[in-house]
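Board notes, transcribed. Complex of a protein with magnesium ion.
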Amino acid sequence: MDNKVSTLLNEQIQKEVYSAYLYLGMANYYEDEGLEGFANWFYVQAKEEMDHAMLFRTYQINNGIKVKLLAIESPEDDFKAFDEPLRKSLEHEKFVTASIGNIYAAAMEVQDYRTLEFLNWFIKEQGEEEKNTGDLIKKFELFGHDAKGLYQLDQELKARIYAAPSLVL
Ligand code: MG
């Protein structure tokens, strides 16, 4: 496999683990604030991000690329407002979308069709991640600024359950 493509794939493991770490920190923040539904939503999000990391790891192993685990920095986990993690996670998802797009472009350049096929799932997944986070921000803007609305939104977010990724390698 092309060197640039394999390096970027390897770096993506770190970005996905960092995403899990970031969302776990946000879950911890909401737990601390007594918003268990928001905490649950971010906890599920963190688990999904770990799945993404494992998918990149498995893909590399399946293609004979040596996996090198890079350092994970400590994420921000102290926020000033309940909607701050929501906005920051949308920003972060856009960063991840760009990162996956960057790998896609590198794979296209060397006509690495197998990697492109692998990345297609993530391209679609990133669209969903941005939509889900964007929807949550909209809901917060509508209902999150009074106590009753916030309580109900928190109850609703308790219902989110973890599902394993639809991509199996
Ligand atoms: Mg991800």
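Residues 3-72+80-158 form a domain with the Ferritin fold (CATH 1.20.1260.10). Residues 3-33 form the longest helix (31 residues).
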